[in-house]
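Shapes recur. Our protein:

. . .
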Amino acid sequence: MKRYIREFWLFGLRQAYACIFGGFLLGVMIVTNYWYPLESIHRYDFIFLAAIAFQVFLLATKLETFRESIVIVVFHVVATVMEIFKTSDAIGSWSYPEEYFFGIGNVPLFTGFMYSAVGSYIARVWRIFEFEYSHYPSKLLTVVLVVFIYVNFFTHHYIWDFRWALLAGTALMFYRTNIYFKVVEKHRSMPLLLGWLLVALFIWFAENIATFANIWIYPNQSHEWQMVSLAKLSSWYLLMLLSFVLVSLINNVKIRSETAGAPSTESRSPA
């Protein structure tokens, strides 16, 4: 029993370590919502500069690898493009109620870091827990899937929303896939689809905290804060899948196979 308790404790600590960038960002959002004494710089701009400074700190102390920092940059660009569209006057899916200097259109630039935090977490947790997979589909198929997912985030405002078809396609593509992760010595496993759901649920909780801290608001929160609908889980699930596949493009996907009763691995190098 003690061994399992120790392993669970170490699992939690390493998960927290993997979330270091996202945790820092969320912490800054919460603190500045209740106490922000600076008059010379907008709160949103302070969050933006704080995120950059923390990234420099992580790289300087080697708490983050250069490859993981690339993930941050890529996610920032991909997310900012989507944010510009989603917050445009014609769409108005959500809004940022406070003033800012560093921004494009209706989007303060710190917002890209919120999505980058998800990519950073996936890249770090992949390395920390030495991920391996069974029955992982080809990278080409996964890239095609997430391209459709990303496009649907835009097109569903004009044509039919394909998210449920995309979720069904995801289930069909990954229903046999297990993820193996090492906490101490032995690899544990779970269905990859379940792992993604747990991460999406965690992001949904963080989203509720962020909207409560007035980072962004949905139209139904403009007069009074209320909990974000559970229906948003589907969006976070798909966005998290997009993040996962992008990370897989710069990582070796270790495929676990059974040979003579003993596990072995082969690597699919980044495309």
Q: What stands out?
A: Residues 66-86 form the longest helix (21 residues). The chain is about 60% helix and 10% strand. The longest strand covers residues 253-259.
